[in-house]
Design brief:
- By secondary structure, the protein is of the alpha+beta class.
- The chain has 2 helices and 4 strands, in the order βββααβ.
- It has helices at about 35-40, 50-55; strands spanning about 5-10, 20, 25-30, 60.
- A 4-stranded mixed beta sheet has the order 3-2-1-4, with helices on one face.
- The longest helix has 10 residues, at about 35-40.
- The radius of gyration is 11 Å and the shape is globular.
């Protein structure tokens, strides 16, 4: 099933990085909220920062929220 939210952050890989996709476009691998914010700025959301990433309803977080970045990390801060 396709996501109803335009931004998808996938579960952490073995190195802790998370794939980021906007609509059908892969933007890159994020290693923290600031990376996600940078991808969003490049996609046209100019005011994106770490606080925006944590609070926005535009992101579907898979495998943990904005506080989950290591593959072995328990829980998230969302």
């Amino acid at each position: 099933m396709a996501s109803e939210k335009p931004v998808v952050v996938y579960p952490p890989a073995a190195d802790g990085g998370r794939r980021v996709r906007v609509d059908d476009q892969f933007l890159g691998i994020a290693y923290g909220p600031l990376d996600v914010a940078e991808f969003l700025r490049r996609a046209g959301i100019e005011d994106a920062d770490a606080a925006y990433v944590a609070a926005t309803g535009l992101i579907e977080w898979r495998g943990g929220g904005p506080g989950t970045w290591g593959a072995g990390q328990d829980g998230d801060s969302a």
